[in-house]
From TrEMBL:
It holds the Pfam family FA_hydroxylase. Keywords: Endoplasmic reticulum, Lyase, Membrane, Transmembrane, Transmembrane helix. Residues 30-164 form the Fatty acid hydroxylase domain. This is aldehyde oxygenase (deformylating).
Length: 181
């Protein structure tokens, strides 16, 4: 982030007072989440092709049962490749530095939570219907690399739209049936 500051300044990043109104901050953060999820989905799905998985993404999947720190554990090429999804929104909008920092904090908290292995009572998946969370992402880490699905970053709409969450939904359905017996 520090090294990218001059580039963001060139793209319109503001750092002076006053801070932007909350309506601007929240609308930009929402836009960043939606755009990041779209770009991340396609990038992550591409990383699950045979060659890219073997040579790049397999580093991240060394842990079949992820924990918080594994969210950032990846091949340097993957960090740059999927990091593009995180910075594309701010690069397009030229936000205030406060908004950029808030976005980065929320993005890191989300990915650590998704890799935590725990479905906490305060998890956003409890009150945001399209939020994936740890349970959704744990399935991704447990299944064979080319068939795993659940490629989304934050929200599950891309996996639902393209049917890459069918295995997960089937498993959840079977678990529900098992509870009813």
């Amino acid at each position: 982030m520090i090294l990218s500051y001059p580039t963001f300044r060139y793209m319109g990043l503001k750092s002076s007072l006053p801070l932007p109104p909350w309506s601007v901050v929240l609308s930009q953060i929402l836009f960043y989440f939606i755009l990041e999820d779209f770009v991340f989905y396609w990038g992550h799905r591409l990383l699950h092709t045979k060659w890219l998985y073997k040579h790049v993404h397999s580093v991240h999947h060394e842990y079949a049962t992820p924990f918080g720190f594994t969210s950032e554990y990846a091949h340097p090429a993957e960090i740059l490749f999927l990091g593009f999804a995180t910075i594309i929104g701010p690069a397009l909008t030229g936000p205030h530095l406060f908004t950029l920092w808030l976005w980065m904090v929320l993005r890191v908290l989300e990915t650590v939570e998704a890799h935590s292995g725990y479905h906490f009572p305060w998890s956003p998946s409890k009150f945001l219907p399209l939020y994936g969370g740890a349970e959704f992402h744990d399935y991704h880490h447990r299944v064979l690399y080319t068939k795993s699905g659940n490629y989304s970053s934050t929200f599950i709409y891309m996996d639902w739209l393209f049917g890459t969450d069918k295995g997960y939904r089937k498993l959840k359905s079977l678990e529900e049936e098992g509870k009813q017996l």
